[in-house]
Amino acid sequence: MSTLTESRPRPAVPAGGPAPARQGPRGLRSWASVAWFLVPALVLFLVFVLAPIGVAVYTGLFKWGGAGPMDEFVGLENYTRLFHDRVFLGDLERGLYLIVLSVTVQLPFALFTAVLLNQRLRGRAFYRMLFFAPYVLSEVVTAVLFTMVFLPGTGMADHLAGALGLEGLRGKWLADPSTVVPTLFVVMTWKYFGFHMMLFLAGLQSIPDEVLEAASIDGAGVWQRFRHVTLPLLGPTIRISVFLSVIGAIQLFDLVWVMTAGGPNHSSETMAISMFQFGFKRYQVGYAGAISVVLFMISVVFSLFYQRYVLRRDLSGAITPGGGR
Amino acid sequence: MASTPPSRRSFLALSGLTFLSVPLAAACGGGDSGRMPAAGGKVAFAWWNIATTEPGKSLFPQLSTAFTDAHPNITIKTTSLENEAFKSKLTAVTSSGRLPDVFQTWGGGVLRQQVDAGLVEDLTDAFGWSSDLTPVSLQAYRFDGRTYAVPYDVGMVGFWYNKRLFAKAGISAPPGTWAELLEDVRKLKAAGVTPIALAGKEKWPGHFYWAYLAMRVAGLAALGQAAAAKDFTGAGFVRAGSHLKELVDLQPFQQGFLGAGYSTPGGQAATMGNGKAAMELMGQWAPSVQQDAGGDLGADLGFFPFPAVDGGLGQVGEVLGGGGGFALRKGAPKEALDFLKFFVLENQSKLLASNGYLPVVKGAESGVADANRRAVAESLARATGFQLFLDQAYPPAVGQEVNDSVADLIAGKKTPEQVTTSITEAAKGA
Predict the structure, then answer these.
(1) Which ipTM value was assigned to this complex?
(2) Which chain B residues are Cβ-neighbours of A257 within 8 angstroms?
(3) Is B96's Cβ below 8 Å from some Cβ in A?
(4) Same domain, B289 and B175
């Protein structure tokens, strides 16, 4: 690649900015205009993102019912309570379970569909649209729809279970602590796999045919071509997909809230639902603030590490000019 | 049921939102209050209600217009919000300390918190006409002998039953004691009828059972004392749980009840309305929700009060219920109370005629036309004691723990003792 770039004629104006020698007043002026254009975005970010984060961290240090003055400082007590809370620890466990399921079941399934729909196939555009359609539906509509599908006794799922001889599942689905999370996962997969499939399709399109051709001339079979050519070249897309899946699972709220409200008996509760329950049902705003801080920290730590160690090679070059070495 | 949940957006936006949702909701909203009487005798006040469905949807504006027509110097700025949206919004304005002049309240623990924060007007002295109202209707808004809201509706929970299904199981009269109820459940099961419909997902319908059993076993006074002493571990409460467990052990509920909603398709009300269960323990609104969600049982629908428990301290005449009222912000214009007097006292017959509310004025129960509603109104008029729904009477954290723990008991995940210790822990922490 590097030889290719160097043989190209150099552009008249270098893209990397003015030459160091002339940096004085012009550099200052461009810095000033950059700052000027950034002000609105920074103010919004400060008021609507950073300030609330600060307020939440602060609120999390108090025992506060949401009314009257915030005057009962408890330090880190909310956090100690959090890590002894059976339900919250369950939230963490369920979050992890959903992440593992998403990455090991949902994404491979999406990849498989994407590879299929990347073939020359009659009605391929139709199938792509069909699988992508659920993603366009709102979470609440999806949830209401599936509440009816999983209705005990009369729902479609019960009829299906009966027809397939899965009598043990009838009347359970969302109504039994042992089946509720897998059932929710089925709905999540139905809704989101189309989105990941689209990402993978876009990634597949960018793999040049020549490479695959060359591989088959070298004698690689279907599986070998997939394993050693398609998969590595799809790497960046897969890494982004995993990232979005994990963050989505950590912050899961709407689907679960409408379908089960976290039940039965907290067995499908997520961190976001616990936060809502404590903030708006039990009016323990300080404790809810602490949950939101932990939820935020988990997301931040995960995304920082992920960016640092996994996405690094994909992102480098995209952010700073000249960094793509 | 759910109020505007956030959708799945990009990571930063959402983690920002996560933070926003609790404290920022607390910081925004509530620009409507703080109105002072303007010059020239002109008065304006804000009125927040939850009349987004009929009959209130047309009746409430009708009454406020009638009032402002009679008092041209008064302007009422009405905001009607759906139940859940109202609660979220009121939570937000409560934390900012800026309540609207007149606002819907259900009394109990939430109102108490607002009162303790110094946000609510004490009506006791200005509210002389409270003697015209039934004591039962005022109970939810009274703390330490002071009154903080004007009721416009009151109701109670009892068993709604399907007479045809009871007859099918060979039951001639509704049960008068808990033992008889259990016996009837066995008979219904033997006749192939689902005895009870229950919305396990929503938890509050389940709490009615434990609350009533606690009232019947431990007595009304014990419920108040336990809340004050923050100790629910008394023998009476454990026994209440054991009685509930007797019922649960008979497996009386419909298939998949743990995931069932109340008014949603296939939920508790639909199961009842479609004649697929013989009874439900529910408030006075049950018949209308049954009609909306399932079907109209018509003359097959009957009502009986929660039965007595042998050896218990409580009486059958003591009712569990709740209602609706309006409270005033501290410093709200005094004309607001005049409006409430007009609304409640002078228009009682209109409220009753709308078939959406039950009487709060003494002696008005004969004005209730519908037979089922009159049965409830008469039970209320005869009531010898009143307990507000526990999830409203107690501080929100305690009330929600009652709902949660009782739901666990019904699902077989907690013992009666564990229920009482969990509630006690929540009460001590709140």
Answers:
(1) 0.74
(2) 2, 5
(3) no
(4) yes
